[in-house]
Write a structure and sequence with these properties.
Helix content is about 65%, strand content about 0%. It is mostly helical. The chain has one domain: Globin-like. Helix 2 packs across helix 7 and helix 7 runs antiparallel to helix 8. The longest helix is centred in the first third of the chain and has 18 residues. It is globular. The termini are far apart.
Length: about 130
C-alpha cells in the first residue's frame, strides 16, 4: 500500500495554488515589510511571478510534479534567499502568513501537523542574520 504524499493529502495542484494565493494575500495585507521583499503590483500586493514560482516549488516539494526543477533548476533555498537578511522576526512573519493561510483554508489533521513542522524547519534553516 502506497502512502499518499502531502501533495495528494492537500488535494493536489489547485489546492496548493489556493494556499499560495492566500499566503501572499495575507502577507500583502498584514506583513508589508515582508511583502516588499517581493516584486509587487501597483497596489503593493505581491505580484503574479513570485506567486506562480512559489506554487511550482511547493507542488514539487510536497510530492507533486517537479515542474519547478524543470523550469528553474535545483531550488538552492539558502543561496536564493542569501541576498535577504532573514532574522527571527522575518522568519516569524513568514510563518504567521503561512499559518493564517492554512487556517483560512481549513488545513488540519496530520497534514497540517506535517506542514507546520516542515515549514518551521525550512524557515529556521533560512535564517542568515542576527536579530
Amino acid at each position: 500500500m502506497v502512502t499518499p504524499t502531502p501533495f495528494e493529502l492537500l488535494g493536489g495542484d489547485d489546492r496548493i495554488r489556493a494556499l499560495v494565493e492566500r499566503f501572499y494575500d495575507v502577507m500583502s495585507d498584514h506583513e508589508p515589510e515582508l511583502s516588499r521583499l517581493h516584486p509587487c503590483d501597483p497596489d503593493g500586493r505581491v505580484a503574479r511571478i513570485p506567486r506562480d514560482r512559489f506554487a511550482l516549488f511547493l507542488i514539487g516539494w510536497l510530492g507533486g510534479p517537479d515542474d519547478y526543477v524543470a523550469q528553474h533548476g535545483h531550488p538552492r533555498l539558502r543561496m536564493r534567499h542569501g541576498k535577504v537578511a532573514v532574522n527571527v522576526a522575518m522568519r516569524d512573519a513568514w510563518m504567521r502568513c503561512m499559518s493564517a493561510a492554512m487556517e483560512e483554508l481549513a488545513i488540519s489533521g496530520e497534514v497540517r501537523a506535517f506542514l507546520d513542522a516542515r515549514f518551521a524547519e525550512v524557515a529556521d534553516f533560512l535564517r542568515n542574520a542576527a536579530d
